[in-house]
Every structure is written in structure tokens, then in C-alpha cells.
Amino acid sequence: MPPEQENQIEPSLSVLFICFVRLGLTAFGGPAMIAHIKHVIVQRHCWIGEPFFQRGVALCQMVPGATVMQLAAYIGYQVHGCRGALTAFIGFGLPAFLLMLLLSALYASAQDLWWVTSLFKGLQVLVVAIVAHAAWTFGRATTKGVRAAAIAVGSALLLEAGANPFAVILLSAGAGALLFRHQGASGLSVPTSPSAMTRSTRAIPLAAPFAWAALLYFINQDLFRVAVLMMKIDLFAFGGGFASLPLMFHEVVEVRGWMDSKTLMDGIALGQITPGPIVITAAFVGYMVHQTAGSAVATLSIFMPSLVILVLTVPFFDRLSQAGVVQSALKGILASFVGLLLFVTVKFTGAVPWDLARILLATAALIALIRKVDLPLIVAVAGCLSVMLFRS
Fold this sequence. Notes:
Blueprint: H1 13-25, H2 33-44, H3 50-62, H4 67-110, H5 114-142, H6 146-160, H7 165-179, H8 199-219, H9 221-236, H10 244-255, H11 261-273, H12 281-313, H13 317-321, H14 324-350, H15 356-370, H16 375-389
Helix pairs in contact: 1-4, 2-4, 3-4, 4-12, 5-11, 5-14, 5-15, 5-16, 6-7, 6-14, 7-14, 8-9, 8-12, 9-10, 9-12, 10-14, 11-12, 15-16
């Protein structure tokens, strides 16, 4: 064991699983959970050291997928290799999936009730505020400078012109590689991973998404289409869970027509009620398409490719973090997501029949988000106000 890790404690897989289930039950606030995970894993349990935790945060921001979910997998990988990564990943995401499955079933069976209709009239307004706030905070962090802002604006204009979001992301990566090529890499100094994989063992996780898709292809074509779509979204979702929303909106609403924008907004609202990353909205989409089986398939598929990428990337992160072209392309991709989020904000805004009550609710929610009020509290208050204000 390297000197940075020699005084660390190695938990059993069962202890690792239970710990991350507990963390998953309280995983509200997205990236804000990182500090709490650090307190539990580094300071309380001493499972990995500070240098390895900081390394994990940096890596999870570079690869696609929900950052906090990826961090759970990274910690598991450091203490138990691939088995630990899978154990921590499942443990952390399981509470959010089970709750979203329950809420999706209740939504599908009770959406015609007056109070449910009233509730989601207000929560749709809240979703507009949440996505607008995400675009603002994401933009402040990633579009520093004229070149990054140009990529963001260009991405939004291309989407408005009907361009495919996946093509926009690839184009932005190329633009970033050219525009930021002289800025160099971040110069991050990281310790060597203790869990290097051999060439033969790397083939196992690499084959998992293909085996998963092939299995579903022969079992059920509808489930196969859900899985392929969610894996495609996950592969392009750099910058955290919110980056998946523009891609999900384009594919689910505009391309496939599986639901309208208002229904997807309801799913996003449910995703804010549950702990865990916003991409758990995939479970709602899967349920609306193919009930419980669709929810399970969508959830596994929205997380699988990014988990595989993380596991395969850990041993090579030293070199990857120093590659200037990777850093430059990533800057372009992150800038493009600001444009994508702006585009989705406009689309969601257009789907709401605005009146004075909705404008006031959206404004109050946005102010609360800016002032960093806990999201579960905002959702609870907005839900209560919705039932009172929008009775039909």
C-alpha cells in the first residue's frame, strides 16, 4: 500500500454498502454532498486519505456522469477495486431509485386527481427556476472569458436552429481543443492509484454495456431502445447530472415523443424530491415508457457507461490530467452545456401558462435558490403553495 494510504482502514464490502446506503438516503444538494462524504469517509472512517479524496473529486469532474455518484464509485474502487466501486455505487444510488420508482407509480395512477394536478402546476414552475439557476451557476463556473462565452452562445443558437445536441457537444469539444490549446493542463499533482488493473481485467467492465444492450435486444426491443438512449445520454453528460437534462429533453420529448415537456418537467420535479442526482429522472422516464422494468433498465443504463469510464480511467488519471488537449476539449464541452441549459430553460418556460401567481412563485423560488436555501425545503413549500394556489 502506498505511503499516503498505509494508515487507512479497509472496510468489508457489506460495511461499505451500508455506509453508502446511509449516505444515499440523505444525498440532497448535489455537489454539496461532497463535503459531507469527505467528513464521513476521510475523517470519520479513515477509509482513504485526503490526497486520494481530492484526486477523486478532480477525476469525477473530468469524466461524464453525475459527479457525486462517480465519487462514491471512486471511493469504493480505492478500497476494494472494481467490486468496491460497484458496491458503493449501487448503495449510494439505491435509495433514490426505490423512492423514484414509488413516486413514478403514484404519479401514473393519481395524476388525474385535483390536488396532484394542482401540485404539479406549481412544481413545473419550480423546475423552470431550478434549471435557470443551474444554467446561471454552471455558466459562472465554466464560461470565464470571451471564448467560453462564445461557445455557450453558439451552442444555444445551434440548438435553436435545430441542431442535434450530441453533435453540438462534439463540435464544442473540437472548438475547445483549438481555442484553449495554449492554456495548458491544470498541473494537478496526484498520487498513484493502489488499484491498477491488468489488461485482462479491464476487458470485463468495458464489455458490460455491450453485453447489457445485447441481452435486452433479445429480451425486449422497447427496453433495448430505452437502454441505448440512456447510455447515449450518460456518455455525453460531462459536468454533472444537470448536463443530462438538455439531452434527455431533446431525445425523450422532441425526437421520440415518449412524453410532452410538461410531463418531463413533472419527472424532474420528482427527481428533486428524491435524494441523489437529478439524472434519477431517467427512472421516471423508464416507468412512463415501460413501467417497473423500464424504470430499472433506464436507471442502470443512465449510470453504467460513466461508471465503466471511471473505473477504466483511474489507473491512467496521472497522464490524463496532464494532457493539454483533454483539458482544452473539456473546457469546450462544459461551455456548451451552458448553452444547452439556457436552451432548455427557454423551452421549459414556454411550456408554462404564466400568470401572476406563477411569476411570483418562480421569482421566490429563484431567490431562495440563490440564497442557498435547502432544496427539499424549497420543494416542500412550493408544493404546499401550489395546492392552495392552483386548485382546479
